[in-house]
């Protein structure tokens, strides 16, 4: 029984050594580990036959079987793990794939045109023309025209202002890029996306 316990450690270390060889494929590794486990099991059974009593022999065989079963399970687990790791290594990094890390909404000021300036200036001049008389009226008209032109320009900018959605993406290769949308694109932080033309889409 004690012999089997010692052999258990040897068997598991042998399986580990087999799987440490990167040159072998997962199937080859599992096959080699299974073969070693079977050989060790056969040797253990021979040792069990040397036990003095039948109860000791039965217990020895049970222990040997348990060691063999555990070795196969360890070999299978290591094989699957190595296979997954190999597949992950073989997958190229998608340079156009990433994850949304921020979505911000801001107000974009509209463009003022000559129309706003002219309309504001005319309105201001009309109001200024109603103040005082003589030279004072002329000065009020000029001041009203100037002030009205400026006010008209600002009002037009405000009327033409619009919301802008800025979506920041962090790519799988570590790069970051921001995309601007005139309408809510529906993205949220954490969404997986990829490039599509000059924008992005879900993936």
From TrEMBL:
Entry annotated with the keyword Membrane: yes
Any matching Pfam family: Rick_17kDa_Anti
Stored InterPro entries: Bact_OM_lipoprot/Surf_antigen, Gly_zipper_2TM_dom
Keywords: Membrane, Signal
Domain of life: Bacteria
Compartments (UniProt record): Membrane
GO cellular component: outer membrane
Bilayer-spanning residue ranges: none
Signal peptide location: 1-20
UniProt-annotated stretches for the region Disordered: 180-203
Domain spans labelled Glycine zipper 2TM: 115-156
PANTHER family: OUTER MEMBRANE LIPOPROTEIN, PTHR35603
UniProt name for this protein: Glycine zipper 2TM domain-containing protein
The species this protein was found in: Undibacterium rugosum
Species lineage: Bacteria, Pseudomonadati, Pseudomonadota, Betaproteobacteria, Burkholderiales
């Amino acid at each position: 029984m004690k012999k089997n316990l010692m052999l258990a450690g040897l068997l598991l270390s042998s399986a580990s050594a087999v799987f440490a060889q990167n040159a072998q494929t997962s199937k080859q590794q599992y096959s080699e580990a299974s073969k070693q486990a079977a050989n060790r099991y056969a040797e253990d059974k021979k040792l069990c036959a040397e036990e003095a009593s039948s109860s000791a022999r039965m217990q020895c065989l049970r222990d040997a079987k348990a060691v063999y079963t555990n070795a196969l399970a360890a070999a299978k687990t290591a094989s699957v793990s190595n296979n997954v790791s190999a597949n992950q290594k073989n997958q190229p990094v998608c340079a156009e794939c990433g994850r949304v890390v921020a979505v911000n909404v801001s107000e974009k000021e509209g463009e003022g045109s000559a129309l706003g300036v002219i309309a504001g200036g005319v309105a201001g001049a009309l109001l200024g023309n109603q103040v005082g008389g003589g030279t004072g009226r002329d000065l009020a008209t000029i001041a009203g025209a100037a002030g009205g032109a400026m006010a008209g320009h600002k009002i037009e900018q405000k009327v033409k202002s619009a919301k802008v959605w800025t979506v920041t993406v962090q790519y799988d290769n570590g790069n970051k890029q921001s995309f601007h949308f005139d309408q809510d694109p529906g993205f949220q932080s954490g969404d997986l996306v990829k490039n599509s033309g000059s924008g992005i889409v879900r993936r």
